[in-house]
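User: quick one - fold this with adenosine-5'-triphosphate bound?
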Amino acid sequence: MAKIDLSNISHTYNPNVENPTYALNPFSMTWKNGDRYAILGPSGCGKTTMLNIVSGLVRPSGGKILFDDKDVTDLITESRNIAQVFQFPVIYNTMTVYDNLAFPLKCRDFSKKKIEERVQSVSETLNLSSFLNMPARKLTADQKQLISLGRGLVREDVAAVLMDEPLTVIDPDLKFRLRRSLKEINEQYKTTLVYVTHDQNEAMTFADNIIVMDQGEIVQVGLPKDLFEKPKTTFVGYFIGSPAMNLFSSEVSSNNSIKFNNLEINTRTDLSKIKNKKVKLGIRSEFIKIANEQKDNVVNVKVIRVEDFGNFKLITGKIGDFEIKSKVEREIPISSDNLKLYLPADKCCIYSEDKLIQ
Ligand code: ATP
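Assistant: Sure. Structure tokens for the protein plus adenosine-5'-triphosphate:
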């Protein structure tokens, strides 16, 4: 396994035109040896470009890639010692499942005993043990993808396993189990795993380090908890979480309070140095509670919809022209069209020019 440094990396697919557009704007980042990373973002934000730069399929327009401090920027994929798993299975249909899994080790002259040991271990983790002697072509599409995954995981000596939306063809039940298996494999073998996805649930349940991208920029790197509680930009607040973070255009009214729709809301943010008084208040629907009395940070809301999701209720209300969403326990009765909602000051995030004021 290796530590991977992406140093001042940038990429454009049209370098020779007058004003090239950048699929990746310059960034630097280190992937630690043995950690699990998810690259998360909407379609076209640059996830695959980043992965392909690490694997060597794309040479970056700018910057360097270092594996354990060795510059590999000009090395071809085969010389980088990485394993790749793509969206659709890449396997040898005529070989047995065993031979498919053993192939990456046979090519590198591993002993028969070692090959046997690794194939058994990986096939058990991926529930492929009973298919080892079958020709791979006889397996279903999702089982074939398990073989692809297995071929990536069977080598302990790879610098990293890079996966680009690897569970797309896997059914939802198995997806959940596989993500857990990948985590176990990572914990057991300390394999550096990098996983590209546009699905926040996949990213959150798989990785400790989530790299959120938007339009060629890395907008936040952090734990699922950080992304949820303190999104660094309004984009992250909107993209992560279901429903998206409530965001209200507001104005700074004192050193730590803002006003929206003529309502004064206290925050824990120091707003004394803010030059542009126009800000946004962001608060997760999970943190907004029903209040019984009028006090600071309580707002009156006209209820327009209550949806029962089984394990919670989602209230959608209006404050003037603003729409507000609050997730509450499903047992709480909502009898009136008018509600008081409490916005705890410590859960209010304030954004200036769409960036979190820390
Ligand atoms: P998706 O989730 O849809 O795969 P992505 O986040 O992986 O998207 P990329 O595939 O890295 O995004 O694409 C980033 C940008 O670069 C997009 O605007 C895309 O159109 C452009 N792009 C990607 N590959 C090429 C290419 N070979 N030639 C020209 N432009 C490309």
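One thing worth noting: The first strand starts at residue 4 and ends at 12.
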